[in-house]
Amino acid sequence: MTDPGAHPWPQPTAEGAHATFHVAGWRYMGAEVAYERTMVVGGRPLLFAALAGASALSNRRRREEAARLAAPRWRPLGDVTVVVAEDRLLVLHEGVWASVWLDAINAVHSPHDSTVTLLFVDDPPYAFSGAWAGHLASALDRALADRHHEGRATVDA
Q1: 36 and 102 share a domain?
Q2: How many C-beta atoms lie closer than 10 Å to residue 82's C-beta?
Q3: What separation in angstroms does the CA of 8 have from each of 29, 142, 147?
Q4: What does the alpha-carbon distance between residue 143 and residue 16 come to, in Å, rounded to a whole number?
Q5: Domain extent for 13
Q6: Residue 82 in contact with residue 127, Cβ under 8 Å?
Q7: What distance in Å separates the CA atoms of residue 31 and residue 15, rounded to the nearest whole number?
Q8: Is the same domain home to 128 and 150?
């Protein structure tokens, strides 16, 4: 990767793109986690009761662990490419492009030069970090200002 201090902006790579950034991506969301339930059938009544109790306890632990793993939290997306265009961000993750429409962004937080977080009304937030994140925040602020949607998105420095 090029040193971000070498020049202030990466060069646009696509028609209509303001800038392209390579950053680490995160998304605050839950996950689907499966767990396997077990059940004991048969045996003498006392043995059956003991095995059924142990099975129920084991199932409870598995269910609680699955719930813990599925709970919403910041989940790493890995290295992503973010293209700032006139009306949206294009995010390349695992070979697939996703559109993040600028009008859907409720707030932008950039407390450090190395982190920017995008908040939405109805979607899980994105966070981007790395050497280019501060530049991404500036490009995003400029794109939002160009859209003349005062009050729709704010930048916290």
Answers
A1: no
A2: 24
A3: 32, 14, 22
A4: 12
A5: 4-29+73-156
A6: no
A7: 35
A8: yes
Half-sphere exposure of 44 (CA within 13 A, CB side): 2
Three-point CA angle 89, 115, 101, nearest 5°? 15
User: What percent of the chain lies above the pLDDT cut of 70?
Assistant: 80
User: What is the Rg, in whole angstroms, of the alpha carbon atoms belonging to the chain?
Assistant: 23
Q: How far apart are CA 151 and CA 99, in angstroms?
A: 22
For 58-105, the DSSP string reads HHHHHHHHHHHHHS-EEEEEEEEEEEEESSEEEEEETTEEEEEEGGGE
pTM: 0.68
d(C-alpha 96, C-alpha 25), whole Å: 14
pLDDT digit string, tens, across residues 28-81? 988 887 878 777 666 677 777 777 788 888 888 888 887 787 888 899 999 999
Nearest to 138 by CA among 25, 10, 2: 10
Q: How far apart are alpha carbons 84 and 108 in whole angstroms?
A: 14
- For residue 80, the cross-strand partners are 23
| Shared domain check, 91 and 66 | no
User: For residues 85 and 44, what is the distance between their CA atoms, to the nearest angstrom?
Assistant: 70
Give the pair of three-digit tokens for residue 8: 């202030």
